[in-house]
């Protein structure tokens, strides 16, 4: 019976019972879940929410120079308002804000830092494709208000991470360090119900996700991996692969958690100063923790994502996530490329081994 399945609150109480120092974490995650329910309602209304006001008239530009849609701004406000009041967080970093958000002086400060992307994949909103919110929780164990440097903690120091996906159903997928668990929003009773306990990613896969329009800018190890997948059963992988690209990282990672696969947003050699598109603190790290807690692997292509020491709050990073053996293979291809022992892959695009070796940059 559905009522025998735990709600999110019951799950958190049970899973954090042995960690008295983290009792506030349950309360914070319940606040995050309340923000997610509000965002789910707003996203589901779409343009109805704006009573016919044309989105482009109200679009602004965020810290990254990207167009902020009204929903980006609104969902950012929703997370801030739900999480600032409870005395649980010491500060917040959002994709939509240039600087960390300080807790207002009339609110108590807590011991956690919340970093989040309130509406990932928001360019998909106009075409009614799944979008999501991503968040990560770090510790802040001092009384002093946090400065930007306090947020620069490697991903393995996250004490909780998760995402919400606003699709045909709204789901919250969460880890507090003991597995990755999926909850489905039951709109009739207003609760998240544990529907996908202990998700496990198959270690091998025959599905990959990458934006192939950037193929000419990928580094050779990525060209080699994808090239070999595309060769199918007549190539060295001896099996056919399938490709998916939704352009919504949350939806992509959700698919991988459900049935395996690899997601890549690799380094782009057209601009060596821009190491990838996705943000380390509030996109790559939480997703890497969720994937690793489900038995997968999160990598930059060259090593574990969760070991990267962040240098700035909005830092970008190359991302390779998913089935363990496939991610390890991609890391091996990077090593072999760097020590010159890689198998030449002749790209049908260029009909030569590669245009991009680091020394050419
Ligand atoms: O448009 P591209 O290059 O395919 O990029 C898609 C990627 O950008 C993202 O949408 C992130 O971009 P936003 O931060 O603008 O939402 C990811 O969710 C997705 O994987």
UniProtKB/TrEMBL annotation:
Cofactor: record remark: Binds 2 magnesium ions per subunit.
GO biological process, one term: sucrose biosynthetic process
GO cellular component: cytosol
E.C. number: 3.1.3.11
CDD domains on file: FBPase (cd00354)
Binding site for Mg(2+) 2: 117, 120, 283
Pfam families in the cross-refs: FBPase (PF00316), FBPase_C (PF18913)
Primary residence: cytoplasm
Subcellular location(s) per record: Cytoplasm
PANTHER family with a match to the protein in the record: FRUCTOSE-1,6-BISPHOSPHATASE-RELATED, SEDOHEPTULOSE-1,7-BISPHOSPHATASE, CHLOROPLASTIC
Family designation: Belongs to the FBPase class 1 family.
Assembly and binders: Homotetramer.
The protein's name: Fructose-1,6-bisphosphatase class 1
Organism: Dokdonella koreensis DS-123
Gene: fbp
